[in-house]
# Entry
Amino acid sequence: MAEANSHPYIRVRDLNNASVLLLTSEMLYIDDETRSNISRYVVNTGDLIVSVVGTIGLTAYIGKTLDEANLTENCNKLTSFKGDFAAWSYFFLRSSMGMEAIRLGTVGAVQTKLALKNIKSMNVPFAPACAIERTTSTLNGILELI
# Structure
């Protein structure tokens, strides 16, 4: 791994219990060549990431300090949410119902993995847009107090 530069590398262990993932002094960095080789694994502010290997199901938003950071292949990024659906999805994945969906979507005998196709096929509960907005606003307010 490279010395501190403009290419932070997000590992599963960096997620811990963060709701919003921010740059820390414990993060690693990659060099320019590695960055070009893993250019598909770049995340942006507001993306939602989920660990899919190792400690499966850790979930966090990408904070401003990690915009354009590089993501381990042991996580998937979820993007292109409309309105408050990113927050709604985040809270679902962190809920007992979401964790059960993650458990059911995990495959493999020796090294378990949460396959991307199983993430895509999860049934996130539907609610009217006004209910999603109200609920996520309340839950985000609680997160800010923690």
